[in-house]
């Protein structure tokens, strides 16, 4: 998570403190009969105390209290809201001047302040600052005409980045459509006609009901202009105050449930204006309505904020209205905090991804996402979606939203497009393709049939032919172009597994991925030739132990049978500094069976690397000793003894038999996890009828068929590995609902599942007393990891990077997403600098990123956004952040720009390598 400065946090706290929002609400709607405004000094003192407490609670013991008070004096001056100068906020002017530049018509963040800008965006929407500046500009001289303001608002880029440059197209190779639209869009969606005001669901809005914000926004919008005096109220201040109090009472007070303002009719509001002037709030409201009708919710959000600031900045604005507007700003930013990732770990990220408030109408969401993903005229993108999107209706809708976002005329079937417009539309159809992902879920863990059902639906799409003859699909094609043929299956180019890898492992999905990639299949006559699907699988993004993440990556590579051109999503475990991670993380707690898997896996690689790296030989005995100890605590290992050949011994002997299980045998059993237990059971239940699916899903079918009849020495080892595999699968199958299962017939001797606490011992002190721990039978096993082992883990990272580069694999880096989810405080810590450094001398043997001389060069990397709305960014912002991070590493700006150019060009080449045109020439005579 990004580390913010005190002043940045003070500004963010003023605009996103739920405690302050509650104070403003109680002041606006007092419980008693009083209708007057509070004592200003008392009000300001109360606000300061609340803000100090909120900042301290969010960041306990990080700052001195005196420093917090000083910062808040700057960001919440004594005249705030209720004073005669309540509309003057110099700290916003200073913040805008520090972070933004006015470059002609485009307001964009300063490239030398992009890190500060992104840090602030984690807490407040930057549109708030841009709208503040535009509202100020309306009142300055020379004055802006209405058409000037329309041009300025339309010129702003997504996330207020610089204008795009011709010939510098970006390729997005890892982006989820569902997470690409900005948080402000989801908030604005609450104002949609018929949109319900959802109940509170997050962390920060517990004190502020989101419905009250929506009701207040609707009430104010319905009034149109609450600062006009002479026309509406004849200069009667009391009458104006009554109107304001009535709007607030219906929105926030006790009567809000019965008197809440109804939904707005945006179509009606588009015609409700008399004076076309940039400083006319009613005209500004009309621009909001027009943007909403056009499904441009991003522009509608900016117009809405400008409209609010225009009222706020009016010197004649009633203090009660100014307080209501600030309450609305504050409450909306509070709600935004539940839409922007805060914290660490995939489980937390998934919680943010599935917030109900993010599930706005698909049209608004997709137009907003398309504007973010296709900012430049030649930008392209690989889009990660679920299999539910692979339908003619869903793809047709997406094409319409994409056309609207990119300014392309879409065919409607009512009239023929011109040849130029038809070609532009067909070109747009080829600017993207899908990478469909399986979702890691507990339901699939305990019901693997669901994985194969999802795979079957994907396979069906690949061979679908009907229902594609609709205007949005035909691309405005005329009768004279009948030789063109649309092949919708070409929009599907990749396969992925997304979600919490700690919850559901890749081994559940790998057999289905291999089956979907199987080639040389029968097709209908006349179908064009196609190549196979590439893999782009999430792996090594989040982990309780770096070795767990590295093993997850290796399981993905081996079990999915990755080949040249396949990509690893995130793969942070292959690049983070293990020592820094362990120092920041402290104790590592994980299930004992996972710890055993890790030990077996690193033992294997220590054996392989020992010929080249003396350090590997030194750590081998450490791993072997701990494997034998941890094996005593793994229930499925005890149960497996009962299935080994010649294991007719009584259950009480199982503990002794566990000691005969070697690390080599455990690793052989780990390799067998590439086989699908579900398809193996289906095969055995169907009378062992072998078909193509079984061959792919259970590549070691011959070994399973031979067990347990093998008698030769090698056969006995294989049979034992098969026994371990089967017993582990049976043990896992009994854990439905997260319950620990009975110990598979060995309850008298098998221990319950335990967890291991692993501590770093950087001084190589003596390890724990294993015998004492075994006798204690405690629920938590103590283990330590030495400095020597940490060095080996780093060496193993280098080894794997070199192996994967030789295989032709690519890593998908998502810098801001990785910083938010992982344990990093700034972008300079991102492992892209280790994978593909801007200065390749860093990879020379013995240098900073090749300490052990195991790497021969960089591994290929493409830069992406992942979820540009949940971790606010754009692809161009990602490159700007990497440039700033490279400068932190001591790279010159010229060399940093050259490095980024190589990354950009490779990303574009990578998309083109994977993409296939959806329009092909029909075969002659067809």
UniProtKB/TrEMBL annotation:
Protein name: Adenosine deaminase domain-containing protein
Organism this protein belongs to: Massilia mucilaginosa
């Amino acid at each position: 998570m990004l580390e913010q400065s005190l002043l940045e946090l003070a500004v963010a706290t003023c605009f996103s403190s739920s405690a302050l929002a509650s104070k403003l609400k109680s002041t606006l709607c007092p419980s008693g009969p009083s209708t007057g405004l509070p004592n200003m000094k008392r009000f300001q003192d109360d606000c300061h105390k609340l803000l100090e407490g909120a900042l301290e609670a969010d960041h306990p013991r990080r700052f001195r209290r005196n420093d917090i008070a000083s910062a808040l004096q700057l960001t919440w001056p004594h005249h705030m809201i209720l004073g005669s100068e309540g509309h003057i906020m110099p700290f916003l002017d200073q913040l805008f001047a520090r972070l933004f530049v006015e470059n002609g018509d485009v307001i964009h963040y300063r490239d030398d302040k992009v890190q500060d800008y992104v840090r602030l965006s984690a807490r407040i929407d930057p549109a708030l600052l841009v709208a503040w500046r535009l509202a100020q500009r309306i009142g300055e001289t020379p004055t802006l005409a209405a058409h000037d303001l329309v041009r300025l608002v339309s010129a702003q880029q997504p996330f207020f980045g610089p204008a795009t440059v011709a010939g510098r197209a970006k390729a997005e190779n890892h982006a989820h459509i569902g997470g690409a639209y900005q948080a402000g869009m989801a908030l604005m969606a609450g104002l949609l006609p018929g949109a319900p005001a959802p109940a509170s669901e997050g962390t920060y809005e517990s004190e502020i009901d989101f419905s009250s914000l929506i009701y207040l926004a609707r009430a104010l919008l319905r009034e149109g202009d609450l600062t006009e005096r002479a026309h509406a109220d004849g200069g009667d201040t009391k009458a104006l105050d009554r109107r304001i109090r009535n709007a607030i009472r219906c929105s926030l007070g006790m009567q809000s449930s019965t008197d809440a303002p109804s939904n707005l009719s945006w179509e009606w509001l588009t015609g409700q204006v008399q004076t076309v002037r940039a400083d006319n709030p009613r005209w500004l409201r009309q621009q909001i309505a027009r943007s909403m009708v056009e499904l441009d919710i991003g522009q509608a959000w900016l117009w809405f904020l400008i409209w609010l600031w225009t009222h706020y900045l009016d010197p004649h604005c009633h203090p009660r209205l100014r307080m209501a507007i600030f309450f609305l700003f504050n409450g909306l930013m509070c709600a935004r905090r539940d839409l922007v990732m805060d914290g660490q770990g995939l489980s937390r990220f998934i919680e943010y991804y599935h917030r109900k408030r993010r599930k706005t109408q698909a049209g608004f969401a997709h137009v907003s996402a398309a504007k973010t993903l296709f900012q430049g005229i030649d930008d392209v993108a690989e889009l990660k979606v679920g299999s539910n999107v692979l339908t003619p209706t869903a793809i047709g809708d997406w094409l319409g939203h994409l056309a609207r976002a990119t300014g392309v005329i879409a065919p409607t079937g009512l009239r023929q497009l011109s040849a130029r417009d038809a070609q532009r539309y067909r070109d747009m159809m080829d600017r993207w393709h899908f990478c469909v992902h399986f979702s890691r879920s507990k339901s699939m863990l305990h019901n693997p049939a669901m994985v194969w059902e999802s795979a079957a639906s994907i396979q069906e799409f690949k061979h679908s032919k009907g229902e594609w003859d609709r205007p949005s699909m035909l691309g405005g094609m005329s009768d004279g172009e009948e030789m063109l043929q649309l092949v919708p299956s070409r929009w599907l180019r990749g396969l992925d597994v997304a979600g919490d890898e700690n919850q559901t492992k890749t081994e559940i999905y790998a057999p289905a991925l291999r089956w979907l990639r199987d080639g040389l299949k029968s097709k209908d006559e006349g179908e064009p030739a196609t190549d196979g699907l590439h893999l782009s699988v999430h792996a090594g993004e989040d982990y309780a132990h770096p070795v767990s993440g590295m093993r997850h990556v290796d399981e993905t590579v081996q079990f999915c049978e990755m080949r040249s051109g396949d990509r690893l999503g995130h793969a942070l475990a292959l690049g983070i500094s293990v020592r820094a991670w362990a120092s920041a993380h402290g104790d590592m707690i994980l299930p004992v069976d996972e710890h055993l898997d890790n030990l077996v896996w690193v033992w294997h690689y220590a054996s392989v690397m020992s010929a080249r790296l003396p350090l590997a030989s030194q750590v081998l005995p450490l791993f072997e000793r701990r494997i034998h100890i941890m094996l005593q605590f793994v229930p499925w290992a005890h149960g497996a003894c009962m299935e080994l050949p010649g294991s007719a011994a009584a259950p009480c002997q199982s503990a002794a038999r566990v000691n005969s299980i070697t690390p080599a045998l455990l690793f052989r059993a780990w390799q067998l996890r590439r086989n699908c237990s579900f398809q193996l059971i289906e095969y055995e239940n169907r009378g062992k009828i072998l078909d193509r699916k079984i061959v792919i899903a259970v590549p070691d079918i011959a070994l399973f068929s031979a067990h347990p009849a093998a008698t030769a020495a090698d056969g006995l080892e294989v049979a034992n590995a098969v026994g371990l595999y089967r017993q582990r699968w049976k043990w896992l199958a009994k854990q439905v609902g997260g319950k620990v299962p009975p110990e598979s017939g060995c309850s008298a001797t098998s221990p319950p599942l335990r967890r291991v606490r692993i501590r770093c011992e950087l001084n190589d002190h003596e390890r724990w007393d294993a015998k004492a721990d075994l006798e204690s039978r405690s629920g938590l096993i103590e283990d330590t990891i030495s400095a020597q082992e940490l060095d080996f883990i780093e060496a193993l990272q280098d080894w794997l990077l070199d192996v994967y580069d030789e295989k032709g694999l690519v890593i998908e880096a998502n810098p801001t997403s990785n910083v938010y989810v992982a344990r990093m405080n700034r972008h300079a810590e991102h492992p892209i600098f280790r994978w593909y450094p801007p200065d390749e001398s860093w990879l020379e043997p013995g240098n900073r990123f090749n300490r052990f001389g195991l790497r021969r060069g960089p591994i290929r990397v493409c830069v992406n956004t992942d979820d540009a709305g949940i971790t606010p960014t754009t692809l161009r912002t990602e490159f700007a952040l990497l440039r700033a991070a490279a400068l932190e590493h001591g790279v010159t700006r010229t060399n940093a720009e050259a490095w980024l150019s190589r990354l950009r060009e490779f990303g574009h080449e990578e998309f083109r390598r994977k993409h296939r045109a959806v329009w092909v020439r029909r075969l002659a005579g067809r």
